[in-house]
Amino acid sequence: xxxxxxxxxxxxxxxxxxxxxxxxxxxxxxxxxxxxxxxxxxxxxxxxxxxxxxxxxxxxxxxxxxxxxxxxxxxxxxxxxxxxxxxxxxxxxxxxxxxxxxxxxxxxxxxxxxxxxxxxxxxxxxxxxxxxxxxxxxxxxxxxxxxxxxxxxxxxxxxxxxxxxxxxxxxxxxxxxxxxxxxxxxxxxxxxxxxxxxxxxxxxxxxxxxxxxxxxx
Length: 217
Hints:
The chain is of the alpha+beta class. The protein has one domain (15-206): Class II aldolase/adducin N-terminal domain (L-fuculose-1-phosphate Aldolase, 3-Layer(aba) Sandwich), CATH 3.40.225. Helices cover 36% and strands 15% of the residues. It has 6 helices and 8 strands, in the order ββββαβααβαββαα. The relative contact order is 0.17.
């Protein structure tokens, strides 16, 4: 479990899951268990309705959010939620994360959106489930491709990231935290800074992603 190693979680905060698409079953961190004590056997298996099917512990309280994202984004295989310092600061400010440079553009196409806070009815009805529904609906309304922007900020809450599997979701969580930190420093140095030119963003994103990508081996 790499989240503590990257400094993305404190105590039992946050969670990670990975899904087997063929069976529709995903494994998720048990609620309130310290990362140092986690073993593969401690992970809880649940279905896409959030019902536990195997494991001795209760699943993460964010399980319904993960389930909704798996249902809405069929190409993803892993999800991570953290309360990492810089990404959560942007979420608490209710700000989307602009793309100020190529570090961001290498991994996320354009700004990382911050979705609104749930209203009272949504909170009381099914808080975690409605969080997932809101993320999925917001991406659809904004025309955001979840594969091109594998991250979101939830206002007054924190970040979720995803990827082809749980490992890539953790990777994206670490990159998100770093670019959120860089963006904070950038705005401290220049308050009226503008996002990187679109042509530069396009060059860096597409040289690593897509049919004509040429970065790496």
